[in-house]
Amino acid sequence: MASSERDTPISVGFSLEAIAFCLYVVRDAFAGAMKFYFAKLHLEILWFSPDFVAIVCIALFIKRCVIDNGSMMAFLVFGQICVSLFIGFWFLGSATALMSSIKMIFPLFVGFCFADRNLGEYRNSLRIVTATLYLSLFGIFLSKYWSMPWVGFKYESFGATREAGRLWWSFQEQRLAGFAADSTMAAYFILVAYVMTSIRRSIPWCIVMGGISIYAIRLTTSKTAMGVLFVYLVAMLFVRSLPYEKRLTTLRSLTLWSYASILVPIVLIILFTGVDLSPGTKGFFFSLQDRINNSWQLPFVYLSQLMPVGIVTGCGVGCFNYPQQLFSNLTDYWVPVDNFYIGTYVMFGFPFVIFMWMVFRSTLIVTDVYKLSLVFVTNIFTITVLSYGPATGLLVIALGFSEVFSKTATKVFQGGGKPQAALPSEPRLSAVRDVG
After folding, report:
1. How far is residue 355's CA from residue 48's CA, in Å, rounded to a whole number?
2. How far apart are CA 91 and CA 89, in angstroms?
3. DSSP 3-state of 223
4. Cα(106)–Cα(108) distance, rounded to whole angstroms?
């Protein structure tokens, strides 16, 4: 959006949230290589540089969204996060788990700081994202023919041992990770970087690079990322085939419908609990069956045993996430919660439902093509992925939700206005040019 359409001019060339975003992207996309060489050079402290910047972003979020915008939603969300951190500490009973939970939540505030910002204006950040796409693709293809030196390299974090480059196999097929820490991370960054880069590229570029990206993700064996990228590519070509004036409205409608993916696990649980979806095989349907019977249900079963009130209040930040898995006495109750919305509800409880309703309403007034596209993609992607690791996964989701704290959303929610009435006329939206 042009600066004349804002209350005050904003320079986003090297803003704090952009710096934090780029640091997280670079660190997580090349985590395998960075962890290895940071350890070799005794520069482990550099691994935490994005987190140091993210701490400042917490203060920036409070200033911009709570104080400047006067957003009651921002104030309540900040308060709920603090309460949930305390509940998580009480539930997990570990100071180390609390510190890990606090660190886990830092990227959330970086994403929220993009409220009132149009991502198309962050040209330097987008260049870094584009470079990340090309390098990630190169890393995947390189790792197909050359064994990376960081594969299997182990390191300690908060006293827990991890691998900088995990060597995974899927049904006798190696999962290639490239420069990332594991194959899932590599696939995720190809997906997100492609989405953010494709918005300003021509249709031939999108088709060619889309095909290359899908093939590279195929080498990581990440079926979810590969399927989501294909869906995004089809949706993008459909939107671009429409008359110019209908593209933004159509994209917004697709994004709104993508929230229906929240209901997919519930429907699958009702229809297929206890059903053998993969007799005699351990392919895609076996993985889905495990999620239906275990990943999506067991957290609530264990929570009803350990802390019944947690079904409503949540069991706090870090529960049924890696702080519980690595640093708590409740490790035996940990299960991978392979869905962002289920995993977040388990931690925050019913207040998260209210927050998501407000996020859904705020989508009606979003004019940033980047944010709409990212929400569309991440909603589908997180059906089978928790997306709290790497940290950039949570950051990207928060970035897509950030307009719930914007000046426009605050006027609508606290002033009783209608979302559609807050939308500027279509010709004034420079973001529309991004999809054509």
Report:
1. 29
2. 6
3. helix
4. 5
What is the DSSP annotation of 145-188?
HS--TTTT-EEEETTEEEESS--EEETTEEE--TTSSSHHHHHH
Inter-axis angle of helices 369-381 and 183-198, nearest 10: 150
4 assigned to some structural domain: no
Mean pLDDT by 10 residues, the chain (436 residues): 38 77 97 89 92 97 96 97 98 95 97 96 96 97 86 58 47 73 92 97 97 96 94 97 95 98 96 79 76 94 96 97 94 94 98 97 96 98 93 97 96 77 45 41
Segment (H or E) for 343: helix 340-348
The count of domains in the chain is 1
| Report field, pTM of the whole predicted structure over 0.70 | yes
Dig out the tokens for 402 from the structure: 């950030």
Indicate the residue type of 162.
R
Single-letter code of the amino acid located at 423: L
Report yes or no on 8 lying in a domain.
Answer: no
Determine, yes or no, domain membership for 189. Answer: yes
Report which DSSP code applies to 429. Answer: -
DSSP class of residue 93 equals -
Q: Got the DSSP string for 118-138?
A: -GGG-HHHHHHHHHHHHHHHH
Please tell me the distance from the alpha carbon of residue 162 to that of residue 184, in angstroms, as a whole number. 15
| Cross-strand bridge partners of residue 90 | none
CB 288 within 8 Å of CB 385: no
> What is the per-residue DSSP string for 4-64?
GGSSS----TT-HHHHHHHHHHHHHHTHHHHHHHHHHTT-GGGGGHHHHHHHHHHHHHIII
Residue-wise over 284-321: b if at least 16 C-beta within 10 A, else e? Answer: eeebbbbbbbebbbbbbebbeeebeebeeebbbbbbbb
The predicted-structure confidence for 90-132, as pLDDT tens digits, reads as follows: 999 999 999 999 999 999 999 999 999 999 999 999 999 999 9
- What six digits make up the tokens of 237? 């070509």
Q: Which residues contact 381 (CB under 8 A, 6 or more apart)?
A: 188, 191, 224, 225, 228, 387
How does pLDDT run across 63-80, given as a tens digit for each residue?
A: 999 999 999 999 999 999
Residue 299 and residue 333: Cα distance in Å, rounded? 8
> Does 42 reside within a domain?
yes
List the domain range (segments joined by +) for residue 148.
Answer: 13-435
Distance CA 318, CA 84 (A): 9
